[in-house]
Amino acid sequence: xxxxxxxxxxxxxxxxxxxxxxxxxxxxxxxxxxxxxxxxxxxxxxxxxxxxxxxxxxxxxxxxxxxxxxxxxxxxxxxxxxxxxxxxxxxxxxxxxxxxxxxxxxxxxxxxxxxxxxxxxxxxxxxxxxxxxxxxxxxxxxxxxxxxxxxxxxxxxxxxxxxxxxxxxxxxxxxxxxxxx
Length: 181
Ligand code: HEC
Ligand code: HEC
Description:
Layout: H1 2-29, H2 49-53, H3 105-109, H4 111-117, H5 166-176
The structure holds heme C (2 copies).
The site of one heme C (HEC) has 20 residues, from helix 3.
Main location: periplasm
Keywords: Electron transport, Heme, Iron, Metal-binding, Periplasm, Signal, Transport
Protein name: Periplasmic nitrate reductase, electron transfer subunit
């Protein structure tokens, strides 16, 4: 018991000493931290995600935060990466409440209102329950729109992404096979 207590006390002391030395180290380095360069320059290939997320700034130095990204509000529908991708939201959704009492999204995206607002109505899947039965109103499992649909911002990617959609893959295969398929 006494040995355990002693070991615990030593561990706590060690922790304090280490924490203190880190804080001192931090303070000494503040002046030498270079300002973070624009993100795009730091986009690194696959395999260096952690580095890229830190924009190449060493782990023991503090990065200057980037300016807040702005939500893109172009009203232009975006291409989907694959057929069942929930489309991204092409407009800003500031102050659109989705709560137990009200669903702002359905003001425009419900079938009955869509024409008035020139909005695409939610597709039939949004009225289906988990047994594929069609309901008269939006299905509870599609009620919280932002679970699946998100806005996009003008933030620069921090990690390189090599995603190719199926049409690109097929086109490449076809070209390789001499284009006779
Ligand atoms: C004031 C009406 C209005 C409200 C409220 C609204 N939308 Fe929209 N939405 C539109 C219109 C109109 C479009 C068609 C593109 C455009 O003009 O922005 C659209 C487009 C979309 C699309 C793109 C569909 C596609 O096929 O690419 C998604 C997804 C979407 N909205 C989701 C939402 C979500 C989620 C909410 C709630 C957080 C919401 N909308 C609230 C009017 C609205
Ligand atoms: C569980 C995920 C999920 C939720 C929650 C969800 N959606 Fe979707 N949504 C999808 C998927 C997947 C698609 C594309 C395939 C499809 O239509 O089912 C889609 C398609 C859409 C489309 C395009 C329809 C079309 O015909 O092009 C709109 C608009 C939309 N959703 C709006 C909404 C709104 C508004 C809500 C909230 C009331 C909502 N969605 C909730 C997954 C979801």
